[in-house]
Design brief:
It is a single chain. By secondary structure, this protein is mainly alpha-helical. It has one domain. The protein has seven helices and no strands. The longest helix has 21 residues. It comes from Caenorhabditis nigoni. One of its GO terms (biological process) is ubiquinone biosynthetic process.
Length: 144
């Protein structure tokens, strides 16, 4: 159990812990990332993917995953991210597809183009930072 004072502030370490707890997982228990042969790149992508959800305040449901994949596809140019966004978007329910096309997509394109490069961000040195401060440093604005 986390100390009560952690729950009252939106620090990155608390947000990451809560993110993993909601998924009932840990970084080591998740499925293996495919198509990344370099172990250092593999761990960096996995870590950055989780923190992208946190920084963009996107859930791990289908709509949130597609939104994050579009962000990653635009920022990183990785084929797995681009194809994940496109094919994942095709699987969205009609209501979610409409929300994605009219709200999330324009927002995430702008965020990906104007934000700092997430893969180069030193997440590990910001664990004690407030989420809002990290968002400012990354130049991202949460979706309203």
């Amino acid at each position: 159990m986390l100390p009560k004072e952690w729950a009252t502030v939106k620090k990155i370490n608390f947000e990451h812990f809560s993110f993993l707890e909601r998924l009932n997982t840990s970084p080591d228990a998740r499925p293996t990332v495919k198509y990344i042969d370099n172990l250092e790149h593999f761990f960096r992508y996995r870590e950055t993917h989780d923190f992208t959800h946190i920084a963009l305040e996107q859930k791990t449901n289908m709509l949130g995953e597609v939104t994050v994949k579009y962000f990653e596809g635009i920022q990183y140019g990785l084929p797995m991210c681009v194809s994940g966004g496109i094919f994942g978007g095709a699987r969205l329910l009609t209501k979610n597809r409409s929300e994605f096309l009219h709200k999330n997509l324009p927002w995430v394109v702008e965020q990906a183009k104007t934000a700092r490069f997430f893969m180069a961000f030193d997440w590990e040195n910001h664990f004690e930072s407030q989420l809002s401060d990290v968002q400012k440093e990354l130049n991202v604005v949460p979706l309203i």
